[in-house]
Every structure is written in C-alpha cells, then in structure tokens.
C-alpha cells in the first residue's frame, strides 16, 4: 500500500512537471491526464472518499474533454473563452466552483491540502499562456465574490478552506496576467499555509474539537494560522498579498479594489472564528488532538514573517 502510494505520488508530481514545462498543448494535456489518473487512487483511500473521488474525476474529465476538443480544432485553440472555462473548471474557480466544497468533504487532510494547493499548479501555468480577455475578468471577479461570500455561514473546516481557496484563485488568476514570479511566490506561501493547517487539523473533523480542548496553545496556533491565511499583517499570509497588490495596482486599480474588498470579507469570518476559539470556555475533550514538535515547526514558519517584511522594506 505504501509502495503504491509513493508511486502514484511520484506520477502525480511528474504529470504537473510535464504540464508546466510542456512545449505544446497536447503534451500539456497529457500531463494533466497523468496528474488526474494519479490523484484518483490517492483520493480513494476509504469508502467515504469514493464520492469525492467521483465528483473530482467527473469535473476534471469535463475540463480535459474541452481542452482536447480545442486541441483537435486548430481554429478554436486560440479561443480564450472556451480554454479559460476549461481551466476554470479544473481550478475550481467561480462560476465553476460548486463542485469543490462538496468534493473536498470526504477527502483526507493530506489529500485536501494537495487538492487546494499542488493540483492548482498545472492549470494555472496553462492560464498564463492565454491572452487577456473579458472572460478572465469575469472569472476573477466571480471567484473573489464567491470565495468571500460562500464561507460566511460555513463552520466545517474543509468547505471553509475550499471557499478560501476560491478567493485566493482570484488573486492567482490576476497575477497570472501580470507576473509569473509573483504568482509562484504567492502560490508557494499559500501552499505552506495550507499544509500548516493540515498539520494542526489532521486529527480532527470539526473545529469544536480544538476549541473545546483544554490545550489553549493548540487553539492559539490554529487562530494564528487562520489569520495568516486571511492575510492579516504582520503574519506570513500578508507578505504575498502585499507583493501581489503592488503588481495588480499597476495592472488594474478597479480589480485591485475588488480583490481587497473580498479579502476584507474573507478576513471578517476568519476573525469571527478566531474570536470564538480564543474566548470560548475551554473544557476537556476526550478526542482533543495533541501538540508536538512537528506541529510547532510549520506554525513558526507561517507566523514569523515580520522580519521578512522588514527586510523587504529596507532592501
């Protein structure tokens, strides 16, 4: 079982690398398919995850069919509308985002983190080859609004992170039209924060398990990571958003305003969650997760960006 998991993980990463470094659309499509067929066995680790795997496969197959149709029709491969819609389906960007919060519910924490971070790299790299078009602005605006508004009344952790991912996709899609370096930097920091959340929450199914725990350090670490994911200064998540905002302001000031306002709404329900976690009376919980050195390390990484920001300003 461990050998097969290692094999599928290797082919998953290989498929992404093939797509990113592909010289043609056909080889890029092959990389996407290798990535998809490697991730499905990793998703199907339990009966509860079968439904999520089917939903994920169905939506990814639709996106792949559209891309293959465009490849087979040379006159349409330059059509940004169909290509961007296909990539938006694969990314889970709005208005094609409805499958993502539902598909992520039954996955394990490691697969959830992979789905929200690594699986975004290949479609996002292909999006950088498309020309700027009105449909791109529609995808960005819809993702910013849907990601911020969708998590307002959500208390389950995985769908909440899925809506957060949709909002972050608006930032990444905008950056893909301005700077590849900033896009890679933003996606790297986001990936670190997502896997940090996994390191804290991998033994829980609901936030109340941590908030009801007598271990105040665990809820504090979760709160800091959530706020960092929301981009609250001076935490790590603020650094990529600040860098991205400098790029986006040059590209489009109205788009920068939309992204900032949506992130403010995103940060509002993050602050609401952390306020509850820090003020709620702690009681002993029989299933409360424990804290160890493996948990502390990523927390330090995700919350210690103040020296980085200082260095960024000075140098």
From TrEMBL:
<keyword id="KW-0999">Mitochondrion inner membrane</keyword>
<feature type="transmembrane region" description="Helical">
    <location>
        <begin position="296"/>
        <end position="314"/>
    </location>
</feature>
<feature type="transmembrane region" description="Helical">
    <location>
        <begin position="7"/>
        <end position="32"/>
    </location>
</feature>
<keyword id="KW-0830">Ubiquinone</keyword>
<keyword id="KW-0472">Membrane</keyword>
<dbReference type="InterPro" id="IPR001750">
    <property type="entry name" value="ND/Mrp_TM"/>
</dbReference>
<comment type="function">
    <text>Core subunit of the mitochondrial membrane respiratory chain NADH dehydrogenase (Complex I) that is believed to belong to the minimal assembly required for catalysis. Complex I functions in the transfer of electrons from NADH to the respiratory chain. The immediate electron acceptor for the enzyme is believed to be ubiquinone.</text>
</comment>
<keyword id="KW-0249">Electron transport</keyword>
<feature type="transmembrane region" description="Helical">
    <location>
        <begin position="221"/>
        <end position="239"/>
    </location>
</feature>
<dbReference type="GO" id="GO:0005743">
    <property type="term" value="C:mitochondrial inner membrane"/>
</dbReference>
<keyword id="KW-1278">Translocase</keyword>
<feature type="transmembrane region" description="Helical">
    <location>
        <begin position="172"/>
        <end position="201"/>
    </location>
</feature>
<feature type="transmembrane region" description="Helical">
    <location>
        <begin position="133"/>
        <end position="152"/>
    </location>
</feature>
<keyword id="KW-0520">NAD</keyword>
<keyword id="KW-0813">Transport</keyword>
<feature type="transmembrane region" description="Helical">
    <location>
        <begin position="251"/>
        <end position="271"/>
    </location>
</feature>
<dbReference type="Pfam" id="PF00361">
    <property type="entry name" value="Proton_antipo_M"/>
</dbReference>
<dbReference type="InterPro" id="IPR050175">
    <property type="entry name" value="Complex_I_Subunit_2"/>
</dbReference>
<keyword id="KW-0679">Respiratory chain</keyword>
<dbReference type="InterPro" id="IPR003917">
    <property type="entry name" value="NADH_UbQ_OxRdtase_chain2"/>
</dbReference>
<keyword id="KW-1133">Transmembrane helix</keyword>
<keyword id="KW-0812">Transmembrane</keyword>
<feature type="domain" description="NADH:quinone oxidoreductase/Mrp antiporter transmembrane">
    <location>
        <begin position="22"/>
        <end position="264"/>
    </location>
</feature>
<protein>
    <recommendedName>
        <fullName>NADH-ubiquinone oxidoreductase chain 2</fullName>
        <ecNumber>7.1.1.2</ecNumber>
    </recommendedName>
</protein>
<comment type="function">
    <text>Core subunit of the mitochondrial membrane respiratory chain NADH dehydrogenase (Complex I) which catalyzes electron transfer from NADH through the respiratory chain, using ubiquinone as an electron acceptor. Essential for the catalytic activity and assembly of complex I.</text>
</comment>
<comment type="similarity">
    <text>Belongs to the complex I subunit 2 family.</text>
</comment>
<dbReference type="GO" id="GO:0006120">
    <property type="term" value="P:mitochondrial electron transport, NADH to ubiquinone"/>
</dbReference>
<keyword id="KW-0496">Mitochondrion</keyword>
<dbReference type="GO" id="GO:0008137">
    <property type="term" value="F:NADH dehydrogenase (ubiquinone) activity"/>
</dbReference>
């Amino acid at each position: 079982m461990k050998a097969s998991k290692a094999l599928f993980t290797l082919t998953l990463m290989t498929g992404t690398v093939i797509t990113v470094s592909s010289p043609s659309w056909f080889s890029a499509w092959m990389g996407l398919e290798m990535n998809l067929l490697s991730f499905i066995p990793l998703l199907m680790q339990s009966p509860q995850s079968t439904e999520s795997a089917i939903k994920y496969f169905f939506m990814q197959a639709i996106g792949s069919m559209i891309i293959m149709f465009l490849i087979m029709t040379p006159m349409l491969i330059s059509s940004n509308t169909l290509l961007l819609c296909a990539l938006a389906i694969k990314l889970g960007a709005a208005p094609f985002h409805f499958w993502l919060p539902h598909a992520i519910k039954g996955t394990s924490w490691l697969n959830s983190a992979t789905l929200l971070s690594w699986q975004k790299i290949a479609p996002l790299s292909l999006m950088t080859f498309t020309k700027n078009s009105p449909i791109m602005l529609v995808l960005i605006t819809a993702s910013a609004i849907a990601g911020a508004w969708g998590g307002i009344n959500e208390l389950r952790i995985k769908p909440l992170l899925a809506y957060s991912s949709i909002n972050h996709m608006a930032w990444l899609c905008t950056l893909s039209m301005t700077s590849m370096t900033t896009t890679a930097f933003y996606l790297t920091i986001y990936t670190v924060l997502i896997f940090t959340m996994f390191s804290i929450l991998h033994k829980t199914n609901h936030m109340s398990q941590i908030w009801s725990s007598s271990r105040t350090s665990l809820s504090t670490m979760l709160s800091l990571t959530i706020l960092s994911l929301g981009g609250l200064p001076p935490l790590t998540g603020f650094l990529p958003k600040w860098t991205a905002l400098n790029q986006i302001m040059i590209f489009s000031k109205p788009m920068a305003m939309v992204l900032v306002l949506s992130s403010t709404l995103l940060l509002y329900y993050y602050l609401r969650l952390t306020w509850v976690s820090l003020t709620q009376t702690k009681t002993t919980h029989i299933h409360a997760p424990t804290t160890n050195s493996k948990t502390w390390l990523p927390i330090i990484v995700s919350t210690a960006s103040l020296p980085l920001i200082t260095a960024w300003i000075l140098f």
